[in-house]
Design brief:
Length: about 350
């Protein structure tokens, strides 16, 4: 068993409605059809951004640094999780670095001294797993304990996609649904929130909120020869780094539904009882609807995922831990009962069951 405590979710401070962004800030860049789609088809009302968008000139193609650094959100979330505990009791640090700083050193280089963690701590930086990294982090934590690793695991997850897609759409003069690449860049800019989350993963139940059996964690990878989604970094004519996204939404959605259904079927075989509530990664209404249908889920048991998606957008890598946290905060799951989260991203899908114990 692994035990979760100290779950902390920190959102970037700038909150916007989708209507506010498309009708006011991006009105000159979007046609009427694109604006209508964004407001009615995404299933998202509000998002949180690391930028004060009122200070961004969308008519200029100049790169703009985030007004709030993702590392600051990491530290804020981790400080809440650690609370007053002895930092020497943390034996492993896992960071899920779901943001565009691929060329920077791993965030562990700064976080270890900033959080006063011990010098011999084990560190693992998961990058490129996109939106489905919590199941992998849970299994890696269980491996740490099984191999005799000393101390708890501090898990820190961050999602900061705005920097990618804001820079991309600033370089586009006019966005219509006919220009698929430009339109998808816009949609990704709109749906993602910038945020960080953290939790303590332990091998003992003292003070824990959630219990997870590693046998109740399933991960399925896509094996299709040509990926349905890729992101490539390349310089433009001015030697400025740009992110070239290739996306087949229908192919990606079909892959995800198939892998999610397979993962959930496998998970259910190992569960001793029923599931009180299901969560689905909040990647937009089309994806959530498709996964719910493909997995034959009762809508009454997934309503909270739609509520979370509407109020906070797509939280990227940390949407899974956000769901677990909301289950506790809203009392959506009773003590001693089990919930399940279906996680997915560009590389595959997975599912894990969790039991609330406090």
């Amino acid at each position: 068993m692994v035990w979760l405590s100290g779950i902390s979710v920190v959102r970037a401070p700038f909150r916007y409605s989708i209507s506010e962004i498309v009708d006011d800030m991006l009105r000159d860049k979007m046609d009427k059809e694109s604006r209508a789609y964004a407001k009615s088809r995404l299933g998202i009302e509000y998002v949180y951004k690391s930028y004060d968008l009122s200070k961004v000139d969308f008519g200029s193609d100049r790169y703009v640094e985030p007004h709030i650094a993702i590392d600051g959100l990491y530290r804020q979330a981790a400080s809440v999780s650690l609370g007053g505990m002895d930092r020497s009791g943390i034996g492993m640090l896992i960071t899920v670095n779901d943001n565009p700083q691929y060329l920077d050193p791993a965030p562990t280089a700064g976080l270890v001294p900033q959080l006063s963690l011990r010098h011999d701590i084990r560190a693992q930086n998961l990058q490129g797993l996109a939106c489905s990294a919590l199941p992998e982090s849970l299994l890696n934590s269980a491996g740490h304990f099984a191999m005799g690793g000393q101390g708890d695991v501090l898990l820190i997850m961050g999602s900061g996609y705005t920097e990618w897609f804001l820079d991309r759409i600033k370089q586009i003069k006019h966005i219509t649904r006919k220009s698929r690449g430009d339109f998808y860049s816009l949609i990704y800019f709109l749906i993602f929130s910038d945020a960080a989350a953290s939790a303590i993963i332990s091998s003992e139940p003292d003070g824990a909120q959630i219990c997870i059996d590693p046998h109740h964690v399933v991960v399925s990878r896509s094996t299709r020869p040509a990926p349905a989604a890729t992101l490539k970094m390349s310089p433009d004519s001015r030697c400025r780094m740009i992110f070239d996204m290739s996306l087949d939404p229908r192919g990606l959605r079909d892959d995800i539904v198939r892998l999610a259904a397979r993962s959930l079927t496998q998970l259910r075989r190992s569960l001793p009882g029923g599931i009180e509530i299901f969560g689905i990664h909040t990647a937009g209404k089309k994806f959530v609807d498709s996964v719910a249908e493909g997995c034959s889920l009762d809508h009454s048991k997934i309503r909270m995922s739609y509520d979370i998606m509407s109020s906070t957008g797509n939280m990227g890598a940390l949407s899974s831990i956000q769901f677990v946290d909301e289950c506790i905060r809203r009392d959506a799951i009773s003590k001693g009962n089990m919930g399940c989260f279906i996680d997915y991203g560009w590389e595959g899908a997975g599912a894990f069951a969790f039991e609330r114990i406090s």
